[in-house]
Design goal:
The complex is a heterodimer.
Chain A (H helix, E strand, L loop, with lengths): L7 E4 L3 H13 L6 E4 L2 H9 L14 E4 L8 H10 L8 E5 L4 H9 L4 E4 L4 H18 L6
Parallel strand pairs in A: 1-2, 1-3, 3-4, 4-5
Helix pairs in contact in A: 1-5, 2-3
Chain B lengths: L1 H42 E2 L9 E6 L3 H13 L7 E6 L4 H6 L2 E4 L6 H8 L6 E5 L9 E5 L5 E5 L1 H6 L3 E2 L10 H178 L1 H52 L3 E6 L4 E4 L1 H7 L3 H4 L4 H4 L8 H11 L3 E8 L5 E11 L2 E8 L1 H63 L6 H32 L4 E4 L1 H12 L7 E6 L5 E4 H19 L4 E11 L2 E8 L31 H11 L4 E6 L3 E9 L3
Parallel strand pairs in B: 2-3, 2-4, 4-5, 5-6, 15-17
Antiparallel strand pairs in B: 1-8, 6-7, 9-10, 9-13, 11-12, 12-13, 14-16, 17-18, 18-20, 19-20
Helix pairs in contact in B: 1-2, 6-7, 6-12, 12-13, 13-16, 14-15, 15-16
The chains are: A alpha/beta, B alpha/beta.
Chain lengths: 146, 759
Amino acid sequence: MNKICIDILLVEDNPMDAELTIRTLKKHHLANNIYTVTDGEQALNYLNCRGEFAEREKTCPRVIFLDIKLPKINGLEILKLIKANETLRNIPIVMLTSSAEDPDIEAAYALGANSYVVKPVDINSFTETINNLGMYWLGINQPPKH
Amino acid sequence: MKKNLRFIFLCFFCVLGFSYHSRAQITERYQAISAYIFNFAKNVQWENEESIKEFHFHVLGDDKNIIAELNRLSQIKTIRDKPIIISSSKTLKEKDIARAHLIFVTQKNKDLVAGLHKKIEGKNILLVSDGCDDKNIIMINFYDSEEETLNFEINKNNLARHYFTVLPEMILTGGDISEIRDLYYKDQQTLRNLQQEINTLSFTAKMLENNLENKSIEIKHKKDSLNQQTRVLQKQQEILNEQTLLISQQKKDLASQQQQILTQQRIYQQQSRELLTQRSSLEEGKKLLSNQNIEISRQKTEIKQQQSEIVSQKLTLNTKETEIARQRKLKILFLVISLLIAALVGTILYAYRNKHKLNIFLEKKVAERTHDYDLANQQLQKELAERKLAQEALAKSEERFRSTLDNMLEGGQIISFDFRYLYVNKAVTIQGRKKKEELLGYTMMEVYPGIENTAVFPAIRKCMKENVSQHLINEFIHADGSVGWFELSIQPVPEGVFILSYDITQRLLAENKIRKLNEELEEKVAKRTAQLANANKELEAFAYSVSHDLRAPLRAINGFSKILSEDYAKIIDDEGKRLCGIIQSEANRMGQLIDDLLAFSRLSRSSMQVTLTDMTDMVRQIFDEAKEQYPDNKINFHLSELLPVSVDANLIRQVWINYLSNALKFSSKKEIIEIEVGCYKNLGEIIYFVKDNGAGFDMNYVNKLFGVFQRLHNINEFYGTGVGLAIVQRIINRHGGKVWAEGEVNKGATFYFSLPDKI
């Protein structure tokens, strides 16, 4: 665990949605290196290699899938903190949330989100969206060099 | 001894071998000839070979070996799969010639060849001769060469003349058997070479095939990789499409929210308008009040006029009184004069005693004068009577005016120059809360201490000084501390001033109340709008959380049942898969219900944007889109020209979509769908209707049609959540219209909605 450079950091508090996401990515062999955290504080600890992740080797995920509705710290707050951090700001962040509200979208982009994806309600659209996301961010998109 | 024996055996075997050899040579000749004959027959073509059923070879001669060999060979071989019959004779007979195909003349009978040649002139018979010298008459001839080997020669012209064609396989120049053997070996060698070449060629062919296979496999691999790349590209395109869809959806959401904001602004504007109308009504009340004030002032001026009339009449009264006094004085004078005249008359009588005529004259004069004085008296009396009448009339009018003054609503008081009450009417006593006895004769300061400090006093003073009427509103504090407001009009009169006072306390209080009420109203309105906005926000938040939080578990139900049916498909039987399918479809249906409910609730919250809408165009657009769902049905659509009307276009669009899609859906089972859309005016409303020839409904349940989640049909007959008509009713009610429907089971239904006819 310490030396593996993960592809996706999934920040999702709802375990059902997290499981669906991971299963969908697994079916297309995109879920080999995916790590899930269930709240913003854990996410920040993970990225900064502190707290419970102090032993982790300092590698950055290729992309972060970030939900907005999280316990403790709000997803937009997390976004702000990550983008404010010199070492972490280059990691592409995809907001993956059920909220389709304009204020949320505006705020996310204003804080520097790289993408905003609304989780579809219908399961077929959901799996398709997750697949497309995985293929794009792990296959087509070029991550920044670290 | 032994050496000799060995030599003898060697010689013996050599001789044997030689003899075998020579014998072989000798025996071979007839064998060779027979073999050749068969070869010749094989290698030439008779004219009508198809009609030949069996080949006849005739031997002319009695060479037994040849005949026996030919017979033997005829058993084994066939020519063109046809049997060969050998016959022989020593002499040539006609019948032999007729049936023979091939005639072989033996060496001994070579002299007969010439005669035979003539006999077979023009016939399709092959003549094989042996040792004939005449080369012109032979066809095929055997001869022995100088080396004693067997050769044969062929005369091609004769063969042609006898209608033979020579096949290429014929060995044209004969040779001995060893040569043939050599040829055979050569042929075998060439065959082997050819076979070797064939082998190598086949080998190279196989190599090439292998190469081709490898290359085709490579090509397949490349094709696969290309396919993969195209798939990736397709997926990218799909991603792009989805993103554009998302963007357009977000734009639509933005537009709808902007519209919502605009509609809410409109609400506020409407409410402000309402406030304005209330203000205008208040102003109207104020105007009324001012009108009343004007009327009051008019009445005051009238009263003033009347007062001036009263004053003038008083003056006339006074003058008339002085006149009466004068006239009384005149009367006294007249009396005195009459007395004097009487004295005169007496003296004149005394004088007349002396003079009668003078007496009569004087009496006449006296009579005249008394007559005049009588007349004057009468006149005076008349005038007196008139004066009395006038006085009475005056008194009456004075009484009238006094009572008017006394009883009028407004307070009227006459104040003398030294601020004493000369006259007060009833109203003054009521207004000032003092009795007449307490006022009349007293000064104002005595009655109302402190009044000299109010604004009244300077006004009265000014009026007295400058003889100009004053007008003011005065706040008056009663003895008990209560406050009253009076409108005062101060007029100069000869005695002092005349003050007309009007109690406006109630009016001012009312005005204050109205102002306060207005302010309160505005506050209330502001509060209510804030409350409404709050309620709206709460409802929005509620609806949002309903949709969001209710949908998340739905997604989980849907997703996991799908995973179950897919990943565990091997151990779940068909029934299990069907059950999973039911779970998914019901979860989807719940999602649909949530969406419908949300749309329904959003309706009552959104504000309306009213514009003049072209209904005909809208209906046509909606129907063209809706009917694409039913490509298999024949649809007759009758759309009459619809009247335009002022409505919220988006909401009315929803109404039309619901009505038209219902009409299509419930008529979809009929072969020909007949739908009619029209409108008519009725009592200040425009009524629009959609008529179809579909499943219809039982009129007993017509009241349930427009209820929420109410359906009159099975979900399997016709799909629907039961919210569409409820939405229609809500929208139309908001516009101030009504909805209703008529129907008959299986004959069709007509759905109506009415809108107020205003543009």
